[in-house]
Amino acid sequence: MFDWLRKRLRRSPPPVTDPLAAFDQLIEDLERQGAGIRKSAATLLALKGDLARSESRYAQRLEEIDRRLVQARGDAKITPALERDRSQTEALLHSTRESFVRAEQDGLLLLEAASDLGQRVAELRAERESASARLAVGGLMSSALREQVQRFEKVLAVDAARDEIERAHALANIYREERGTTGKPE
Fold first, then answer.
1. Residue 124, CB half-sphere, CA atoms under 13 Å: how many?
2. CA-CA distance, 6 to 35, in Å (whole number)?
3. pLDDT attached to residue 101
4. Given phi > 0 = left and psi -120 to 50 = alpha, else beta, which region is 55?
5. Which has more confidence, 66 or 146?
6. What is the pLDDT of residue 84?
7. How is residue 70 annotated by DSSP?
8. pLDDT by residue (tens digit) across 76-92?
9. Cβ-count burial of 55 within 10 angstroms (0-12 exposed, 13-18 middle, 19+ buried)?
10. Distance (Å, rounded) from C-alpha 96 to C-alpha 161?
11. Is residue 19 a contact partner of residue 131, using CB atoms and an 8 Å limit?
C-alpha cells in the first residue's frame, strides 16, 4: 500500500510537449500575479485617501480642542478632560501619519513590482514570438531536410540499380568471354 502511494507521489507531472504552451503558461501566471499586485496597490491608494481624510479630521479636532482650552482657562473640571482628549487626538494623528507614510511606501513598492512584472511579461511575449518564428522555420527546415533525404535515398537507390546493372553486364561479359574461349555452351 505504501509502495503504491510512494510511487504515486514520485510521479512528476507530464512535461509540456508544446514549448509555446510553456511560454503561454508562464505569461498567464505572471499576468495573474501582476493583476493581484495592481489590485493591492489600488487598495493602498484608497487607504491613503482615507488616511489623508482622517489626518485632516484629527488636525481640525486638535484646533478645536486648543480653542476650547483657551476658552476654559483655569476651569479645573474641563481642562483635564480637554488635555486628555488632546493627547488622544495627537496619538491618533501621529498613528495616522505613520500609517499614511507606510501605505505610501508600500504602494510605491507594489507599483514598482507591477511595473517589473509588466516588463517581464513584455519580454516573455517577445521571446515567445521569436520562439514561435524559430519553431516555424525549424519545421520548414525539417520538412526540407526530409525531402532532401528522400531525394538522396532515391539517388542512392538509382546508383545502386546502376551498380547492379553494371555488375550484371560485367558478369555477362565474363560469361561471354568464358564461353567464347572454351567454345562450348554450358
1. 19
2. 37
3. 93
4. alpha
5. 66
6. 93
7. H
8. 888 888 899 999 999 99
9. middle
10. 94
11. yes
Whole-number Å distance between alpha carbons of 97 and 120: 34
Amino acid identity at 82: L
- Tell me the pLDDT tens digit for each residue of 86-130: 999 999 999 999 999 999 999 888 888 889 989 999 998 888 888
Element (H, E) at 184: none
First-to-last alpha carbon distance for the chain, in angstroms, is 80
In the block, cell 483657551 appears at: 70
Q: Which of 125, 141, 115, 130 is nearest to 33 (CA)?
A: 115
Instruction: Give the whole-angstrom CA distance, residue 136 versus residue 141.
Output: 9
Which residue has cell 521571446? 127
Residue 77 is classified by DSSP as T
Between CA 170 and CA 178, with CA 175 as vertex, the angle to 5 degrees is 125
pLDDT band at 165 (very low <50, low <70, confident <90, very high): confident
